Amino acid sequence: MDGAPIEDGAVRVHQDRIVEVGKFSELSALPATVAAKDEVVNLGEHILLPGLINAHCHLDYTCLRGRIPHQNSFADWIRGINAEKAELTPRDYLRSIADGFGEARRFGTTSIVNLEAFPELIAQLLPTRLRIWWCAEFIDVNPPVKPAMQAARLSRQTIGEIVSEALRNLKSIPYNRGGIGLAPHAPFTVSAELYRTCEKIVARDGYLFTTHIAESREEMEMFCEQSGPLFEFLKSLGRPMDDCGANTPLAAFLEKLDPPRSEAGSRAGPSRTGSVNRHCHRLLIAHLNELAESDFDLLAKLPQAPSIAHCPRSHAYFRHRPFVFERLNALGLNICLGTDSLASNTDLSLFAEMREFRRVYARVPAEKILALVTVNAAKAIQAEDFLGRIHPGYQADMIAIPASFETASAYESIINFTGDVPWIMIGGEQA
Question: What is the CATH architecture assignment of 51-389?
Fold first, then answer.
């Protein structure tokens, strides 16, 4: 991802870093005293590429694969996943995350942005070589989930204490190659106070900040029209609905972070200044499927374009309206891919996500599609200076797949690849 493919290429790795890239003949021509110290790994007829980066995933729900059939409404799907989660124990979640690690690794994923509902469980996991960006997920609208570990705490402690406790749990992970972040769930499940608390911490400490926005038509109905299945479902839970009726989901999110005020201090028309504009460069938005024309204006005016994690197969599962890739890309937004959870997908393969993306956007070059799970995804997690490319100074996170001589290019071979990835290296260690 740092130039044209190199035939008969080679990469020299020292400890956890890439130190040289070029043709094998050039690298092996170094002085004998240097070359003699090198251990040579000959992969044969394989394509060597950067490890893949999953920009949006919920490993908690790996165990829910195939458990929730397609529903008539997004609200019904929420009811379905809540019913399934009500039967899960902490041990189930731990097993689910560990199984997700194994499956992601099989498919050549080396880094994952994982939204974690139960940060207190992470310390019980065995260490993984994968790079995980652990993002504590928060909801504060009375979700009917049992065991409601997180929801119960919200009723006993202040929001600030909840977020601080989650961060303590994330920081206590003994061996973490990735990073940490905060993930208030979505505008329809998160209060303005919770959003602002998370944003202030992210602005101060530089953590990843990610949230779901405008995932479904029902979310647009709820915020724009005060109607629809999601509106009625959340209203029945006792959620205050006074933020509905005037905004799109994106505008509602921006307003929760940065409430507009008139000169007298009362609420006024939409204004996009202050903290949102200063810190949205740290923002990773999942989905962004439902947009009004006014939303494109809002996005165009943001001084730092956010990253967008699109999940092609989950998108197809829910039968959402087409993702407006061309318009978002034209605005300069950094678009990357994720798998979402297995409650709405069949596996954690980013190769399959690339194929589904190409099915819908056939005119996008294969090289650009691969960038969605390498270069672009690295940028989304503020890791573009050390992940996503095979380049001197970058982390030695690489995978190799068998070369195919039946495709027009190496990029086409990559997107068409199915099965388990036979060779993987993370931080200079073969995994």
Answer: Alpha-Beta Barrel (3.20)
